[in-house]
Amino acid sequence: MKRQSMPCVLAAFVMFTLAGCTDLTGGGGSSTNESGDGESSGTAYVELTEAITTDTTWTSGTTYYSNNSNVGVSDGAVLTIEPGAIVKFGSNVSFSVDSGSQVIADGTAEKPIYFTSAKDSAVGETVASGTPAAGDWGGIFLDGAQNCSFTHCVIRYAGSDESFGALDIGTKKAAVEDCTFQYDAGSYALSAVYQMVTTSSITGNTFKDCDVPLGISTAVSMLASRGNVFDASNGRNYIGVSTNATNSGSGGWADAAGAAAIHYSVTDVAFVMLDSNGNIYSSNSLHLHDGVTVKFLSGKGLGFYASTNNLYVGSNVHFTAFTDDTYGGDSNGDGTATTPVSGYWDGVCDISAASGAAAYVYNDGQMLYRTDHSPSSDLGEKTYSFPTP
Is residue 379 in some structural domain? Predict the structure, then answer.
């Protein structure tokens, strides 16, 4: 970034900091940002230099720039971001919101809020040279913060940290609505894999040109009626399901959230089970609506309780291998490089079956490329008529 100042006032150049920001404004002899063509834009941008610890508002039309991962929201502060604000981040820089603090980033369709790379000169002030790319900056992490809101936001070029999403909403209630995620790398564009509540809203979002669009915990329902769009341009186009968050690391559907009925009805991409065998605990239930595809990584499986009828399965629902492109599309994004084989994943097991009784469900045409558990030395197999959602 080049800077210029008027010679007559150079000695009087003033830098001032307010609420963790350094204001660099055109006019008055203070430093101005130059655009890529070498001409001064004469428009303000604000450089973020330290944590936000008091209630703060970022204003419409202003570009904010952080090149420091220590910048975030803490000490119970509320950061309000007005429609039309632009927030840019330097290489590998992330932004965290601590427990007790809050971000309200509610844009509008006409004036979205941008969270993007410092190299992204398509919006706001130019603060860095180069071409933006997926993974330029880290992401936004809600570290125990609750009731945060992101509406009509554009989050792009994030994901340098594989541990988190471009936006990771953490464990508490949050709303992510009508946002666009684009050119995001990392584990997910939007990560809800640590969610411990069933009340967060993920609605009306568009995912395009991302690696993996969305990850959820087993406390999160994902319904087609919520209007999330999973564009075919995504590299590995699926919804990842992690069982680890909701039962202190041991796996289980919505256990930590209390008894809950979790529903999946999205059909344009598959739900992919990511972790070791997850069990739907007897007080909870999983409802797979018509046309849903559930895929499993190698060796993974699913446990349910036939004794309480807690796995509901609609028509044309398929349980299959991650490498199966026939149902739910090319989830692993490798074209025809890999193909499914028998025994790829473990199976769907009735963990309430009596000792010595058949436990694994082998419904033909529904359970594809699973492990054969029919030998007498194994738990055995059975057909099973699941209740419908």
Answer: no
